[in-house]
């Protein structure tokens, strides 16, 4: 669910860093600790500057997580029930 929420927020916000900040309860800790940036609060909202998204939080990796959760159970179920007489 978190991977799906992350992808939807990224599409809506247009920025992977901003989407990660919106999904956390503590944007300052996320920005400074996880992303290595500084949190600047403006009238438009909080913005994480000088941040870099680690590879494990990238869009491609999140899509990979989703595909694993979809494909692995289907393949396992196919092989388990392939020769079973139901």
Automatic annotation (TrEMBL):
The chain crosses the membrane at residues 62-81. It holds the Pfam family ABC2_membrane_2. Keywords: Membrane, Transmembrane, Transmembrane helix. GO terms for cellular component: plasma membrane. GO terms for molecular function: ABC-type transporter activity. This is Uncharacterized protein. It comes from Haloarcula hispanica N601.
């Amino acid at each position: 669910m978190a991977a799906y929420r992350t992808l939807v927020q990224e599409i809506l916000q247009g920025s992977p860093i901003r989407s990660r900040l919106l999904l956390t309860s503590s944007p300052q800790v996320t920005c400074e600790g996880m992303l290595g940036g500084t949190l600047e609060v403006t009238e438009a909202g909080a913005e994480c500057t000088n941040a870099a998204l680690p590879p494990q939080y990238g869009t491609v990796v999140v899509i990979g997580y989703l595909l694993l959760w979809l494909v692995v159970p289907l393949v396992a179920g196919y092989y388990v029930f392939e020769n079973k007489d139901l």
